[in-house]
Amino acid sequence: MTTVPAAPIPDPQPPEVAEVTTIACVGIGTIGGGWAAYFLSRGYRVQAWDPSPEAGDRVRALIDAAWPALTQLGLAEGADPHAISVHTDLAEALDGAQFVQESAPEVLEMKQQLLADIDAHAAPGVIIASSTSGYSMTEMAVDAASPERLVVGHPFNPPYLIPLVEVVGGEQTSPAAVAWVSAWYEHLGKSVITMDHEVPGFIANRLQEALWREALHMVDNGEATVEQIDRSITDGPGLRWPLQGPMLTFHLAGGPGGMAHMLDHFGPSLKSPWTRLEAPELTEELRGAVVAGCDDEADGRTVPELVAQRDQAIIAVRQVIEQLRRGSAA
Amino acid sequence: MTTVPAAPIPDPQPPEVAEVTTIACVGIGTIGGGWAAYFLSRGYRVQAWDPSPEAGDRVRALIDAAWPALTQLGLAEGADPHAISVHTDLAEALDGAQFVQESAPEVLEMKQQLLADIDAHAAPGVIIASSTSGYSMTEMAVDAASPERLVVGHPFNPPYLIPLVEVVGGEQTSPAAVAWVSAWYEHLGKSVITMDHEVPGFIANRLQEALWREALHMVDNGEATVEQIDRSITDGPGLRWPLQGPMLTFHLAGGPGGMAHMLDHFGPSLKSPWTRLEAPELTEELRGAVVAGCDDEADGRTVPELVAQRDQAIIAVRQVIEQLRRGSAA
């Protein structure tokens, strides 16, 4: 028996990140339109494609609604909310574009066809990113001639305000394309998480989904109301999470001993029936990975220093939220 | 066969909420000390009990560290950070107290013994709340002579900054005691969730725990690093959660059709392998409860209005967090 060696994945050789001036947005609903608003705010020219005859008016309204927020966060020099053209012809929208962001509806067959069409029309070397939240690029790229340049770039809603973008390639994606698109989003000011391999739901949505399913079970069983679930987050752990994520939060819960103390002390509670999700075995290896990860994140800051930073953040966040609530009630 | 009727639960007849001036804090570690700082900031006198000889110095340091934050959030008239006495004799700490907050370590036998002792020494009618995060009052109250006045009042760390308190009684707790302690915490300015029945982990910790376990699985399987998990929350959904909880977040994701549209459209994704936690069946009843709950929370605000409020909150939260990060890096 002989093994056929896999063909090497070609490097698409994209343009320099800093040389990009024109972006194609394929699909300009809530997500694609949000991307368009963001790209405009960063000073790029946008060529949009959307089959709907109302797409132009809708994206205009979306950009106009988003612009004050984008201005508040700071526009790039020369940013122009009108530097966008809307096309119903795909080749026209892709003409001259040096990067493509696809944000079509979450229908696999549609994504497969559209990515193949984009690939057929985009200039050689141009990277094509998909906003998909539900599919892997391995599934979506099956009909494309150059899957090496197709990458997932999954934003969060609204893409012009939430910094997170999750980047991951498919089996046929070139590592150079993954690296390029990560560098590109970072150049745009995004907070980029580059994943090594495809995981359904990526990272943030997996975590959100676990919480959401537990919440649905609680409503289903009469254990909590919708309002109680929401308030348990907004007035509880939700106040800590904009500064410190769930891991670092528990690092602080361990006191001066940090995550190591926390796991040794509260490890047994992993077996408590506090959620319907079964916990992994707390092996030495897992313990070590979590402790080392928290130490990396703490980056020399002691637990008391992190606590002081958390407390300042909670106060500041509470104050801005209370101001906004008073304002909207007035 | 005859059924022995359960003895009626007596009403403990606590004092008027507004008449409370003196509080006993039993156990003054991180949680109990945090409660003490909060009670002092609200203008109460605190009598603390702790068996550790260092407890007095530790709680002094904790209160002094917390006081600037409490001052920033606004002190009650006459609030005095020194209006606290620390005792090693339990009866002395309870003498004259009109409310008791127990915050001993999470060891069931210790809690059972301590709650029985508190119950034996506290004046009649005084309500006794436990900060437990892990036990039900039904389990903890077994040795107490008057379980009708024992209630769980579960805070979040740090109790002087996070508004949430979860309140739930045990099988022998008087509904009047549950109502009293809810009214009392609200009087103190807390955000109170009163649960109808005991659920392991209460609400916020169940939700947190589902997310935490999914995160541990991801680390265990090499699907994400600790840093990626934290950043996926801080730079992603964590920015939305201080204003709008997970339910209302998805209400907005449904567009103008809100949660109803969201469930009808994305309901099938409940079956996607986006977390290891199995989803409940999306029955008409569950759908109805979730949609009605979101409508109640929206309280007449349209989805575009909620979106505008969310966007303002994200901008404000991002700005304060970025300011704090720049400040701590300086």
TrEMBL record, chains A, B:
<keyword id="KW-0472">Membrane</keyword>
<comment type="similarity">
    <text>Belongs to the 3-hydroxyacyl-CoA dehydrogenase family.</text>
</comment>
<keyword id="KW-0560">Oxidoreductase</keyword>
<dbReference type="InterPro" id="IPR036291">
    <property type="entry name" value="NAD(P)-bd_dom_sf"/>
</dbReference>
<feature type="transmembrane region" description="Helical">
    <location>
        <begin position="20"/>
        <end position="40"/>
    </location>
</feature>
<dbReference type="InterPro" id="IPR013328">
    <property type="entry name" value="6PGD_dom2"/>
</dbReference>
<comment type="pathway">
    <text>Lipid metabolism; butanoate metabolism.</text>
</comment>
<dbReference type="GO" id="GO:0006631">
    <property type="term" value="P:fatty acid metabolic process"/>
</dbReference>
<protein>
    <submittedName>
        <fullName>3-hydroxybutyryl-CoA dehydrogenase</fullName>
        <ecNumber>1.1.1.157</ecNumber>
    </submittedName>
</protein>
<dbReference type="InterPro" id="IPR008927">
    <property type="entry name" value="6-PGluconate_DH-like_C_sf"/>
</dbReference>
<dbReference type="Pfam" id="PF02737">
    <property type="entry name" value="3HCDH_N"/>
</dbReference>
<dbReference type="Pfam" id="PF00725">
    <property type="entry name" value="3HCDH"/>
</dbReference>
<keyword id="KW-0812">Transmembrane</keyword>
<dbReference type="InterPro" id="IPR006108">
    <property type="entry name" value="3HC_DH_C"/>
</dbReference>
<feature type="domain" description="3-hydroxyacyl-CoA dehydrogenase C-terminal">
    <location>
        <begin position="201"/>
        <end position="269"/>
    </location>
</feature>
<dbReference type="InterPro" id="IPR006176">
    <property type="entry name" value="3-OHacyl-CoA_DH_NAD-bd"/>
</dbReference>
<dbReference type="GO" id="GO:0008691">
    <property type="term" value="F:3-hydroxybutyryl-CoA dehydrogenase activity"/>
</dbReference>
<keyword id="KW-1133">Transmembrane helix</keyword>
<feature type="domain" description="3-hydroxyacyl-CoA dehydrogenase NAD binding">
    <location>
        <begin position="22"/>
        <end position="195"/>
    </location>
</feature>
<dbReference type="GO" id="GO:0070403">
    <property type="term" value="F:NAD+ binding"/>
</dbReference>
